[in-house]
Structure formats: structure tokens, C-alpha cells
């Protein structure tokens, strides 16, 4: 039977386990793929703790496979699926977990993998599930939503994380100057992406004012809380304040908005082109085999990841 890394109930890491599971069967609008790589994201452990997406109903069936984004090879297509054939190399969002040898993808948020894009990099790109940020597509949607012209300045909080690093690069590809807030330990990394680094922690907003004396034209927040509130005071046009790090009610109270997720194949294709053209480096910094999926998730959950972590499924 196929192998997978699952959680057996809501809770901490103690609920995780390796398991043999039935090979999934694609339903309408779904694609079955043999997984080549799976991205590891904070959303994975948050769902394990019992986080429920807005609008989600019903109880999760256990054991539940972890993971929300994969790349792989099409094995079978469900009813109503068009544009995908057995043997196609694809990447996209999972319907029911991705730390596994086989996974179901949602055809509506799956794209063909370009020949110049590795399976490992492709697994870091898919769009978010519901409102939770995942990878480069969230960054792409946010930068496009801000709509800043070339020469403008955007502030990215949480610039050292996976979404933040992608947002910095995409903004730079559009000719936008970026001020990135991240820990001092990520200074070299953030600067290597083309951003002006500002250390996080007490007084960070004053440091932003010093780094951008003419002000910032937009804010892409990936932290939330007090950081979002302070960031809002750095701009005059609150329509240029967006977040993927706070609930809608928090940012709307400040005059801003959540990132509006497109969640479609076109976004995936656009992000893949950025990678192939050299405008976006997914910055995969660590890879783990499937039998070390627990270590991969701990790296992300403990906050020790710099860049993206990927599980590579051996073939």
C-alpha cells in the first residue's frame, strides 16, 4: 500500500505518524498524481492543531494526510477533467494531503509543469487553500493586488519567510523598490533578494522611516497583530494595505484588505513563468525524503526554516 505521513487527531506533533493508506481515487474535478515533491508550509501544522478554515464545515476524517501543495505525474483523471492526460507533469493544490506517494489534486488549481521547472521548485508554487497563505502564488496575488507602479516603494513584513521572499522578488521584477522587515539573522538573505533590510523587533517602524525617508506607497503584511497596526501608520492610502498574516476583520478595521486569492491555473502558470525566466527563485533551502517528513515539518513549525522546505518522494 502507498505510504503517507498523517495526523491521527488534532493536537501537537505527537499526533503525527507514518502510515500505509489506500491509493486515492479521483472524484469529479480531481486528478490523481504520483507525487514527486511536496511543499512544507506553516498551514500544514496549523491544520493539524485543529485550525478550521473560514466556511469549513464537517469533521475531518482521520487519519488525515498532511500537506497542501505537490508536484507529480498524472496517473488518472476524474469525471469532468479536461486538459490533463496520464503522464503529464503537473503541480497544484491537494484535495486531501500531499506528504504521500500518491495525492489528489484539484484540477481547477493545477497546472502543467514547464520543462524548465524542477519538480522540487514546482512543489513550492501552488495557490493557497481558502485564506491560508501558501508559497509564491500568494505573493503573486498580493503584489498584483497592490498594483504599485515601477519606481514605487512597498513594505513587506515577514520578508524572510517563504511568501515574503517570493513577494520581494516579484515586486522587484515589476520594478518596485522593496523594504523588507525580518529578523537580523535573515539580513543577508533579504538583501540577496534585492530588498532594503530592516530589522524586526521594537522600533522597527522608526527604522523603516529612516530607510525610506520619502515613505512607502504600499504594505504587504505577512505577520499581523501589532506589526500590522504599526505598518498601517506608515501609509496614507489605506487601500494600499493588504495582509495575508491577519484575519479580515483586523485589516478592514484599519482600512485595508486581505489578499484576494485568484486560486486558478492562470496564476500558477504566471508564477511558473517567473521562475523559468529567472525572476523568481523559490529558494528551496532544505529537502527531506518522505521517510523524514516529520523532520521536515518540525523545521517549519519550529521556525528554523530559511526559504522553502520540500519533501522529495523517491522514485
Search tags:
single chain; 315 residues; alpha/beta; 10 helices
Contiguous helical run count: 10
**Overall form:** globular
Low-confidence stretches: 128-133
Secondary structure: helix percent: 25-40%
Percent strand equals 25-35%
- Provide the residue-averaged pLDDT: 91
Number of DSSP strand runs = 15
* Cα radius of gyration in angstroms: 19 Å
Sheet with most strands:
6 strands, mixed
Distance linking N and C termini: 15 Å
Element-level helix/strand string = EEEHEEEEHHEHEHEHEHEHEHEHE
Structural class: alpha/beta
Strands, helices and their partners?
Elements lengths: L2 E5 L8 E5 L9 E11 L1 H7 L15 E2 L3 E9 L11 E6 L7 E11 L6 H4 L12 H12 L6 E5 L4 H12 L3 E6 L4 H6 L3 E4 L4 H8 L6 E4 L3 H8 L8 E3 L4 H6 L3 E2 L6 H12 L7 E6 L3 H9 L6 E5 L3
Parallel strand pairs: 8-9, 8-11, 9-10, 11-12, 12-13, 14-15
Antiparallel strand pairs: 1-2, 1-4, 3-5, 3-7, 3-15, 5-6, 6-7
Amino acid at each position: 500500500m502507498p505510504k503517507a505521513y498523517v495526523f491521527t487527531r488534532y493536537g501537537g506533533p505527537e499526533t503525527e505518524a507514518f502510515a500505509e493508506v489506500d491509493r486515492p481515487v479521483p472524484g469529479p474535478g480531481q486528478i490523481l498524481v504520483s507525487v514527486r515533491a511536496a511543499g512544507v508550509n506553516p498551514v500544514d501544522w496549523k491544520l493539524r492543531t485543529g485550525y478550521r478554515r473560514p466556511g469549513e464545515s464537517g469533521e475531518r476524517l482521520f487519519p488525515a494526510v498532511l500537506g497542501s501543495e505537490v508536484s507529480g505525474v498524472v496517473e488518472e483523471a476524474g469525471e469532468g477533467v479536461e486538459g490533463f492526460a496520464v503522464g503529464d507533469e503537473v503541480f497544484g493544490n491537494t484535495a486531501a494531503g500531499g506528504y504521500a506517494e500518491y495525492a489528489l489534486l484539484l484540477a481547477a488549481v493545477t497546472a502543467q509543469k514547464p520543462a524548465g521547472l524542477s519538480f522540487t521548485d514546482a512543489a513550492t508554487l501552488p495557490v493557497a487553500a481558502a485564506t491560508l497563505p501558501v508559497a509564491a502564488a500568494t505573493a503573486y496575488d498580493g503584489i498584483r493586488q497592490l498594483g504599485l507602479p515601477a519606481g514605487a516603494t512597498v513594505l513587506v513584513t515577514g520578508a524572510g519567510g517563504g511568501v515574503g521572499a517570493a513577494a520581494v522578488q516579484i515586486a522587484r521584477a515589476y520594478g518596485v523598490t522593496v523594504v523588507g522587515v525580518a529578523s537580523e539573522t535573515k539580513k543577508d538573505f533579504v538583501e540577496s533578494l534585492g530588498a532594503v533590510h530592516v530589522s524586526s523587533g521594537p522600533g522597527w517602524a522608526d527604522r523603516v522611516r529612516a530607510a525610506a525617508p520619502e515613505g512607502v506607497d504600499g504594505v504587504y503584511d505577512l505577520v499581523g497583530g501589532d506589526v500590522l497596526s504599526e505598518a498601517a501608520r506608515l501609509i496614507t492610502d489605506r487601500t494600499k494595505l493588504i495582509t495575508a498574516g491577519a484575519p479580515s476583520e483586523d485589516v478592514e478595521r484599519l482600512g485595508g484588505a486581505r489578499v484576494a486569492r485568484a486560486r486558478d491555473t492562470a496564476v500558477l502558470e504566471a508564477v511558473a513563468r517567473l521562475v523559468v525566466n529567472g525572476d523568481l527563485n523559490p529558494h528551496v533551502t532544505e529537502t527531506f525524503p518522505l521517510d523524514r517528513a516529520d523532520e521536515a515539518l518540525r523545521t517549519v513549525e519550529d521556525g528554523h526554516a530559511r526559504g522553502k522546505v520540500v519533501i522529495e518522494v523517491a522514485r
